[in-house]
Please model this.
Amino acid sequence: MKLITVHHPHSFSKEEFPPMVLALGYFDGVHKGHQRVIRTAVETAKEQNVHSAVMTFDPHPSVVLGHKHKHIRFITPLEDKKEIISGLGVDYLFVVRFTSEFASLLPQEFVDQYIIDFNVVHVVAGFDYSYGRMGKGTMETLPFHSRERFTSTTVPKLTEEEDKISSSLIRESLKEGNVTKAAKLLGRPYGMKGTVIHGDKRGRKIGFPTANIEMAHTYLIPKNGVYAVRMRIHEQWYEGVCNVGFKPTFKNPDEFSLSIEVHLFNFHSSIYGEEVYVEWFNRIRDEQKFSGIEELINQIQKDKETAISYFSGI
Model:
């Protein structure tokens, strides 16, 4: 896949690109609905014997269009999005820098400069895709704005148990700690990259050594609690339990330092500094404060058994 970062105003011309079928969207999560849009573009490109392409935007439009400074946490930060889209067999990925000047383009200007000028012969997008200033352009207006230079396909909404699959619903599920529902909507377990860093090493002292994970990007972290997870180290997967929270048994209640700690089963190597990938499978319980170390140890053992039982059943 060829990655092209586009700054507005761009200087590309139609002659620089082969004929393409273009999938349009922000695609945070690259969930099942997004995958259907992208796969439709890839399949259409094969049928028409042309190249496939995806156009996405960075940063998130709400960062630019919002009245307040927004710190957005992502389901799939840009680096992860690139990897997933590449895995869907796309030839070109255009990452357009979303600025206030770009956002002010009229719908016709967007189509002229970012579709027609990119030698696009067919556009694929979801039913709710909008473009141009204030989102005035829609899939219904696209045939008019196309100037008969390209055709288009509108992908209808995709549902999961009667819910419309959307990034908003996935975000809501993660904030509630429902990682199982998020996985159904994504079509894969929710995952995030990170690096193992030094912690306070209390877990090791009580017989449950943990890997403290520093997230590589601004991921949306599931609700505080304990989860059954898998972690990839050197292309090898290990099962474990993960605690997300503020460690209330040990911490001063006035200290707000969120930690993500993973205890892996049957793993005894030192992995400080290693890059890892954590996948979230099942929520076990809320984070809680224990009266003492013994009570905490007993609960961690129960959590471990719950996670082992969960993984043995999938």
